[in-house]
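Training component of the fellowship. As part of building independent skills, the fellow (R.M.) carried out the full modelling exercise for a liganded target. The chosen ligand was adenosine monophosphate. The inputs are recorded below so that the supervisory panel can assess the work.
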Amino acid sequence: MEAKSDRAAWLKGGDACCNLPPRDVDRPWRLVLLGAPGVGKGTQAELISERLGTCHLSTGDVFRAARTLGEAERSPALTEALECMRQGRLVSDETVLEMVRERTKCLRCQGGFLLDGFPRTVAQAGALDELLDSQALELDAVLSYELPIAQIVARLSGRRTCSQCKAVYHVEARPPQTEGLCDQCGGALFQREDDRPESVKVRMETYEQSTAPLADYFRQKGLLVSIEANGTPEEIFDRTLAALREHAVS
Ligand code: AMP
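Fellow's submitted model of the complex:
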């Protein structure tokens, strides 16, 4: 398995540089992942990133990384963003867009990019179009993962994340070899604050209102590729690859 980028430039922003040299890839895929929280986007993002060399850019990961900053280092906008996140609400478009614009160089990553959790509103999608235009880049596809809501809620409540490397597990569907510990780095597994039942409810409502219309936006642009998100992560990944290849030649 290829080593993954540490995504330092994306997670830290500013002048941070990724540790690993860019790797040779067949072609740089430029993708957006869509789907309700808990549909398995994060797991697919990990697999796509490992196998296709595409850099995984998750806006949620940037906000989670920012939680380790001390109070004094947080701007008022960031403090508000972290409170929104804790409640399962969307962070304002303005704050998210500022954060993404600061990281424009990540869109030029040699391995391509995989945007996970962004865009989340039609306004953010319009801003992404402008940003890509300004860099003379184009999206290859928008992968939309689809699953019934009852299954999504079951997935979210059992989800556990590694506190160190961010690998994602599920207490039933993808348990670690040792309970509570990450197979890859031994880090402690935790339940994300926004996976608690009260936050999950708000996040599902928010998704329906703000994010679901994005599917129409990208369908009209001929970019939407729908993928059934049931089965094992490997099965979903194989389905993703087949759908992506079919889309690329169509
Ligand atoms: P995620 O890991 O993508 O589910 O994101 C976790 C939380 O971060 C969300 O519930 C939002 O509060 C916030 N967030 C992440 N990305 C965005 C975005 N593109 N727009 C608004 N809020 C976001």
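The panel noted the following from the submitted structure. Residues 37, 58-60, 63, 84-85, 88-91, 96, 117-118, 120, 124, 194, 203 surround adenosine monophosphate (CB under 6 Å). The longest helix spans residues 233-249.
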